[in-house]
Amino acid sequence: MMPSVAQSAQLAFKREPLVLRRSREQVRDYVIHKFDQDLPPRELSGLEAALHRFGLIPDPMQLRPTMIDLLTEQIAGYYDADSNALYIPADIEPSQLRNVVSHELVHALQDQYVSLDSIITQQGHNDRRSAAQAVLEGQATVVQISVLMPEQRPDTYPVGWFWQQRVVAARLQGQMAQFSRAPLWLREGLIFPYLGGADFIMWFRHNRPGRSVLTAMPTSTEQILHPDRYAEGGVRGRVGLVHGVGRRGGGGPVFDGAGARVGQAALRAALRGEAADHRWTTGRAARGRARGVERLDAPPPGEDQGHSRLNT
Ligand SMILES: [Zn+2]
């Protein structure tokens, strides 16, 4: 599968990654390790307070155990840069293996061209980090489609097509216990890097043919959502808010650093979603909510209907 991944990503492998199996318990240990690394206690309590305050997660809900349970359930595989290895949970069904391996191979390849570790651990630059995650996951999503379904032509999909698929994605994942219980804020945060990122990648392929997105990473989720602003190279319209964080492994809430700013991706979810039920009662939130009638688009022909976990 490596040659077709390399061809679709238009990058050559410099070395072969390892493939290792992991029990779900080991996946959980990894999730805990990464979560605590990304979110030191002070940052965690700040974020949790902010999410409570804005009504984005219910008051009694604690973020850390919720996210650990959610990620442990959702992870279908992961690539760990420290060990140059793809990790595949032992309980993944054989029919899902190609899906998982094709996705994680893209991350292994990316890691041979940019330092994934340094991208993921940019402390205090959480919106920038979320933007980078969206590029990495978006590229993996697009390449994965080309590898698994060569008859598909993502380049012909309409603009914004991937993000419109979030309802379908959420429905598939909604069959799982933790995901179905999670607040909208967390669910969309989990899905955004894959689908929002894939739309950005499609824009990049159309507008920067022959170039590698890894050499010119966007610096904010605003640029992911509005690639024309990425093209301009500027940052504008940032929204001040409170505490913040990002998280490894599928994106998650995209608040910027403590005391700083919230990313647009997070804000969009907030305006459209549950926040309007609580304290975001401005006209903007109401408009966002009115627009938030979600479309049920058909999945692409041949899409794997059984897919209900995340390749992180
Ligand atoms: Zn991934």
Please sum up the structure shown:
The protein has helices at residues 2-9, 24-38, 41-53, 63-74, 97-111, 116-120, 126-148, 161-164, 166-173, 177-181, 184-207, 221-225, 227-232, 264-272, 283-291, and strands spanning 18-22, 75-80, 85-89, 239-240, 261-262, 310-311.
The tally of domains stands at 1
Beta-sheet strand percentage? 5-15%
How does the major sheet shape up?
4 strands, mixed
Query: Shape, please?
Result: globular
Number of helices, counting only DSSP H or I runs of 4 residues or more = 15
Give the uncertain stretches in residue-range form. 237-262, 273-307
Tell me the structural class: alpha/beta
User: Helix-strand pattern, N to C?
Assistant: HEHHHEEHHHHHHHHHEEHHE
Number of extended strands: 6
Strand order of the largest sheet: 1-3-2-6
Describe the structure.
This protein has 312 residues and is of the alpha/beta class. The chain has 15 helices and six strands. It has one domain (2-311). The chain is 52% helix and 7% strand. The strands form two sheets. It has a four-stranded mixed β-sheet with strand order 1-3-2-6. Strands 4-5 form a two-stranded antiparallel ribbon. A hairpin with a 4-residue loop joins strand 2 and strand 3. The longest helix is centred in the middle third of the chain and has 24 residues, at 184-207. The two termini are 18 Å apart. Mean pLDDT is 78; it is low at 237-262 and 273-307. Zinc ion binds at residues 103, 107, 137, 140, 311-312.
